[in-house]
Amino acid sequence: MICKKVEKLLSGYFDGILEPEEKEKLETHVESCSLCQEKRREYQIMLEILRKEEFPEPKPYFWERLQQKLKEKEKYLPLTLGKRWSTRAIPVSLIILLLLTAALLIFLPEKKVELSQTEVLLLRNLNPLPETNTLLEEANIENKNMMLIFTSMEEENSERR
Amino acid sequence: MEEKVLVQRSQEGNEEAFAVLVNKYKTKVFNLAFSFTRNRDTADDLAQEVFLKAYLSLSKFQLKSEFGTWLYRITVNHTKDYLRKKIKMKEIHLDDLAVSQQEERLVKEKKEDEEQKRKILYRILDQLPEKYRLILILRDIQGFSYEDLAKILKISPGTVDSRLHRARKMLRQKIMPFLERRHP
At what angle do helices B67-90 and B3-11 cross, to 10 degrees? Predict the structure, then answer.
C-alpha cells in the first residue's frame, strides 16, 4: 500500500466504513510507516476535537415564542385545498386553452383555395393576355358579350368559393 | 402518534401537532445552527425562523421523504443564506479571518489547552470552501450518517465519501502546524 492511498482510506477508517480486508492492509502499513502513523494521529486529534463539541440548550419557551410568530403570520397559514386550486387555476386554464387551440389547428379541414383562370395561368407561368385578347377581339358583338358575362360569372364564383 | 400523521395534521393547520414536531426537532435544528454560528442567540433566532419557514412551506412537503431530512435541509440552506448576508454586510475579508501569528504562538505555548485548539480549528473551518465546511459540520460535529448527508445535501453517497475525504484532508493540512507532533 502506498502512503498516498492511506490518506484517502483514513477518512473511511475513522468512520468505520472500510472493508475488513482494506482495514487490515491499512493498519499493517501504518504500523510500519512513521509518516502515516503521524497522519493517523493528526486525524484522530482533529476528529476528537470536532466530535467533542458541546452545545448549549435553545433559549427557554421555544414553542411559545414560535407560536406567537406563527399567529403574526397567520395570513400565510398553509393553503387549504380551495386556495391551493385557485393558485393553480391560472396556469392550468392556460395549458387547456393552448391544447384546445393546437387541437383545432390540427383537426380542422383545410380550405381549398379556388384560383381564377387568370391566376391559374399566371401560376403556370403563362401569359393571360392572349386569352383576353381573343375575348376582346371577338368580332361578333353578341358572342363577345356572352363571353364577358361567363368570364365575370366565373370570377365571382371563384371568389365566393 | 406517528410522525406522518403529525405532519398531515400540521398541513391541515393543526398547531398542536406542529408543536409536537417542534419539540422533537428543536434541539437538533438549534445545534445545527449553532455549529455554523457558534452564538446561542443567533442559533436560537435561526432555529425559530427555520420552524416558521417550515410551517409556511408545509403544503409543499410530500410525505414520501422524511420530515427530519426536509427540516435539516431547510436549516442548512437558511443558515447558509444568513452567513452569506452577514459576510456581505460586514465585508469580511479573508485576511480578517486568518489565524493571527499571535494566536498561533499562543496555541503552541498551550498545546494542552483543548479549548484554544478548538477555537483555532473553528477559525480554520470558517476559511474552508463552503461545501467542505458544510460536510464537516454535518458529519463530524453533528454526526449525521452518510445516507442522511446524501439526502440533506442532495448528492450521491459516492460524492459524500469523496467530498468528506477532501474536506478532512484540507482541514488536517491547515491545522497541522497547531497540533502537537510526537516526532518533531
Answer: 60
Q: Which residue of A has its CA nearest to B8?
A: A78
Domains of chain B, by residue range, sit at 1-106, 108-184
- CB < 8 Å to A38, chain B: 181-183
Rounded average pLDDT over A120-137: 73
Record: fold of B1-106: Rna Polymerase Sigma Factor; Chain: A (1.10.1740)
Q: State the nearest Cα–Cα gap between A61 and chain B, in angstroms.
A: 11
Residue spans of chain B under pLDDT 50: 91-97, 182-184
**CA distance, residue A78 to nearest chain B CA (Å):** 6
**Nearest-angstrom CA–CA distance, B36 and A46:** 17
DSSP assignments along B30-44, one per residue? HHHHHHHH--HHHHH
ipTM: 0.79
Nearest to B120 by CA among B136, B130, B108: B108
